[in-house]
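Class prep. Write one:
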Amino acid sequence: MRRIRRAPSSRTWAVNVVGSVRRDFANQSNVGFMATSRTFAGAGNQVAGGSTHLRIDQNWFLDVQAVGSHDTDLEGARHDGAASVVGLSRNGRSFNLFFNYTGVSPDFRVPLGFVPRTDIHDVGLFWNYRWHPKSGPLTDWGPNSFVDGVWNHAGDLQDWNVRFPVQFNFKKRTNVFYRHALISETVSGLELEQREDLAQVSTSTLRWLSVDASLSVGTRPNYFPAGDLAPFLGDYLDVALGVQIKPVSRLSLSETFLWSRLDGRAGTPAAGADIFENRIVRSRANYQFTREWSLRAILDYNSVASNRSVVDLEAGRHVVADILLTWLAHPGTALYIGYTDGYDSAAIDPARRELTPDGALRSIGRQLFVKSSWLFRF
């Protein structure tokens, strides 16, 4: 006979207990233990584990963590699980390496923590090498490499990616980065193989001006297909540009522009059609009157255009203006006075009783707030 439990009443208390202890050693090594417990309406969860960080020699380090969980849900069902992490790293001037393994069993439960994915064996390896020219414009340059694979406990390969980057660091704070990547993801049981080419440039040669720009092209899945469509690949283009100007020491102006586009590929349900386009623009200004007083203003614009026949993504525009006056005596003692004004293109469709984009921006709310905190030291 199945046991039926009553739903917890509004007066049921949840009891959470968290404890940890760590011992540090002189050679930058340590060992620690932790335990958590949560009980609520007859259900409970207990987690315990240990970890260590060991310095093997001047360059090599080993990190190990193992955790076990025991969980009883409101129906009385019990789940026992485990998770472990092993990391081996080398830090040096020219050669760096990092190996990581993460294993999480299917029944691992941590309600007081954050575990985004269970039932995995995740193995990753990253390394880089840098040459340091004694003359010329370069300070250092060299290749990176990253390989990662994810299996479930049944032995099925879920995801993998291989990256081949190279980086050039120039004098006067200028960097150039390029990466070619091959990626495979399993989405709704489908294996979607992708590619990526990414180029980034950043420079702050002038003290009053810094610029960051990136361009990325390749293939990417449509994770939210419309109707009964299965996820499929599209051709994407991502552009990012960031500019910061400091005309005077007290004033900082920054502009950020992000543009993403996904188009249909031949042989897919969206062949020859646009899937979506997203634009984000942020303008920010900050003025430091004195050491304590500052004023910050932000204007955000976000627009999405989507082809609802192939992607389940709501189109629309959103604008938010934000102003904040701050008095900061020291960390812990501060006064904030702020004003926020937001606008959205969504309107209520009385026939379907849902929000629909109609192209006209409407006010969605204004807020004026005052916040203060005080730290007393004895």
Summary: The mean pLDDT is 91. The longest strand covers residues 354-373. Residues 205-378 form one domain. The radius of gyration is 26 Å.
